Structure formats: C-alpha cells, structure tokens
C-alpha cells in the first residue's frame, strides 16, 4: 500500500506540474493584469487544484480585482448585484465567470470546509439555480482565490443527498428544543460512512409577536476540525429562519458556520440550544455567515435549502420526514437482526 500511495502522490505532483506548464501563458497574463492594479504576484501565488483548476491566491484578491463589489452584511454580497459583473453557467455551479478570471463561492461550502475539495452537493447547485423575484438572496464568496483558466472545464462527482417535504403547519409546531442523534447501535465506521460524521442535530422553535423563529446547529464528531490561523476549531453548521405566521412564509433565512474551540465544543454538543440560558454565562461561537434569503421565502424553499446545507446528514431527513431514508433503515434492521440472532 505504501508503494501504491507513493506512486499516487508522484502522479499528482506530475499532473500539477504539467497543468501549470500548460497554462504558463495564462498565469503570466494574470500576473500582468494584477500588476496593473498594484498587486505583485509571482509563480508562488499559483497552484493547480484538481477539483477547481488553475488558482491564484492572494489576500482579498477578488475585491482587488472587482473593487465595485460591495458587502452588505458581514461577508455577504447581494446575488442580484453579481449579475452585473459575472455570468453563471448551469454546468458549473459555484463559479462566476468574467473575461479574465472566475470568482467562486466561499470554500466553506466545500466538502469538509476544505478549500481543496469540490462543493458539497447539492446546496450550491440549488442556490446557483434559485430564481424567485419575491426573494432577495446573498452569498459569501472566496475572497482570497480566483480561478484563472476561464474555460468550460468542470470537476463533477456523484453523491447521495436527502431532502424532505414539510407538511405540517408551522404555526402549530410547539415552542421548544429538539435533539436528534444517530442510533446507538452504530459504531464509528457506520456513523462516518452513513451519517457523514454527524454527532447530533439541535433544533429550537420560538414564537414572539407573530414570528416563529427556527434555529438549528449540526454537530459533527470530534474528528472534524478546521484550523484558522494557529487555532483548531470544531465547525458547526448553523441555520436561522423567521416565519411570518400571518403571511405564511419565511421573511428571513440564513446559514452560517459556528466555530467552537475544543472546550466549548465538548460543553455544547451534549446540551441543546437552550445551553446559554442553562449555564447563565453565554457561550458565543465565532461565526462566519455563508448565505441569506430575505422577504418571501416559501416553506418548500426553506426545507430544500436546509436539507442540502446539511449535506448527507440523515438526521435532517429524520426531522422533516419522521423516519430514516430507506437505506439507513435497512442498515439498522440488519444490525438489530444480527445482534438478536
């Protein structure tokens, strides 16, 4: 296996070298483009990433190239404004095309929040194709990187995802918290493979002045971490939405990543969304907002994007449908039958 791994890594290095040489003129032209706006880039600023293409990396590069882009809420940009500067292509979700480079959705939309991975299906694919004049949409972009090979190449992969239709009347949902965890019969390997490292799904509903507020945090196992600077964090997807009971639609819906440090993570994951009220002192995670929808957001839209934002997590399906997907239930039946036999 070590020889096989060594050959694989060597092949990857050779492919990177080949692609960088193939696009040497493109890289040179982009260096010239950047020099014209006062940026000094060298060959060290460029890399080939199999899942993306030829990538230029420089602090706040996108906003140096497009200073007219305006952030309206933390790191979010109104999607409508992006249409003035970029073109979307149906086959390559998450990419925004211009003449000289391609802007990209934020790397936290990628698998395991890794800047080297492909986008986690299918949230970005759905968000890219979303059209509803009654809804204002916002997105976080990759500020420090752009793709410079402006062509039709795209990396694709197959995946399984779960969604569900929410049939209950939201105004009839009782206020309170919900916590869902994978079945206790599953071992670490099963949870990793079938539950995408899900540890728990925490949900809270609260009604005030005709507005029903939804919050959810998706905790992964302690195997899933991300380094920001010199600090190791445990990333937790967070969803917040506000449902207008009178008008029967969501007036607001956003998604973010909460970053907990180690002690905070272990304090919080076995509690619920009333944790701060219980302990008296507030635990406030570092937050990075990734998308937002405002105005008239339908229940179906909210369910679909919530499901796909928590990609590959059957706990979301269980909450909305009241059962596991068939292949998860079949797995559990086999485990129970084996234990009883």
What's the gyration radius in Å?
22 Å
Taken together, the total number of domains comes to 2
Globular, elongated, flat, extended or rod-shaped: what is the shape?
globular
Low-confidence stretches: 160-165
Question: What summary fits the major beta sheet?
Answer: 9 strands, antiparallel
Number of contiguous helices: 11
Q: What is the strand content?
A: 25-35%
Tally of DSSP β-strands: 14
Q: Which class of secondary structure composition applies to the elements? A: alpha+beta
Q: Helical residue percent? A: 25-40%
Terminal residue distance: 36 Å
The run of helices and strands is HHEEHEHEEHEEEHEEEEEHHEHHH
The average pLDDT value, as a whole number, equals 87
Per-chain topology:
Elements: H1 2-22, H2 24-35, E1 46-49, E2 53-57, H3 61-65, E3 76-78, H4 79-82, E4 95-97, E5 102-104, H5 123-129, E6 135-140, E7 145-147, E8 176-180, H6 188-194, E9 198-208, E10 211-220, E11 226-228, E12 231-244, E13 249-260, H7 262-268, H8 275-279, E14 286-297, H9 299-309, H10 314-321, H11 326-340
Helix pairs in contact: 5-9
């Amino acid at each position: 296996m070590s020889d096989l791994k060594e050959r694989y890594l060597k092949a990857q290095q050779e492919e990177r070298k080949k692609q960088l040489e193939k696009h040497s003129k493109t890289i040179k032209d982009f260096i010239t483009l950047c020099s014209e706006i006062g940026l000094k880039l060298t060959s060290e600023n460029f890399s080939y990433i199999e899942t993306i293409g030829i990538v230029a990396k420089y602090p706040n590069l996108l906003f140096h190239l497009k200073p007219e882009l305006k952030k309206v809420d933390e790191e979010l940009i109104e999607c409508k404004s992006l249409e003035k500067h970029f073109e979307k292509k149906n086959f390559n979700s998450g990419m925004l095309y211009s003449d000289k480079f391609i802007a990209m959705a934020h790397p936290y939309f990628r698998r395991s929040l890794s800047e080297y991975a492909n986008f986690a299906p299918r949230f970005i694919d759905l968000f890219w194709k979303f059209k509803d004049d009654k809804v204002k949409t916002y997105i976080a972009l990759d500020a420090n990187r752009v793709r410079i090979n402006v062509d039709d190449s795209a990396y694709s992969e197959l995946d399984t995802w779960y969604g569900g239709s929410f049939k209950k009347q939201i105004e009839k949902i009782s206020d309170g918290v919900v916590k869902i965890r994978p079945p206790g019969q599953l071992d670490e390997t099963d949870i990793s493979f079938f539950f995408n490292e899900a540890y728990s799904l925490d949900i809270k509903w609260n009604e005030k002045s005709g507005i029903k507020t939804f919050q959810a945090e998706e905790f992964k196992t302690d195997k899933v971490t991300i380094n920001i600077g010199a600090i190791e964090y445990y990333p937790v997807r967070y969803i917040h939405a506000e449902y207008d009971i009178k008008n029967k639609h969501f007036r607001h819906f956003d998604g973010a990543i909460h970053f907990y440090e180690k002690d905070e993570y272990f304090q919080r994951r076995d509690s619920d969304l009333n944790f701060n009220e219980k302990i008296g002192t507030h635990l406030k995670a570092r937050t990075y907002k990734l998308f937002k929808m405002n105005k008239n957001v339908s229940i179906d839209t909210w369910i679909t994007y919530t499901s796909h934002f928590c990609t590959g997590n059957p706990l979301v399906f269980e909450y909305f449908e009241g059962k596991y997907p068939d292949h998860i239930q079949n797995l559990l039946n086999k485990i129970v039958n084996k234990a009883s036999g």
